[in-house]
Amino acid sequence: MKEHIEDLAQTKLFFGIEPYEIAGLLTCVHARSAQYSKEEMIIQEGSHISDFGIILSGHGRSVKWDASDKLIIITLLEKGSEIGVLLAANPEQESPVSVQAQDEVSVLFIPYDALIARCDKTCPKHEMLLRNYIGIVAEKGLVLHERISCLLKPTLREKVMTYLIRVSREQRSQTFSIPLNRNAMSEYLNIERSALSRELSNMKRDGLIDYHRNSFKLLV
Question: What's the pTM?
Answer without folding.
Answer: 0.79
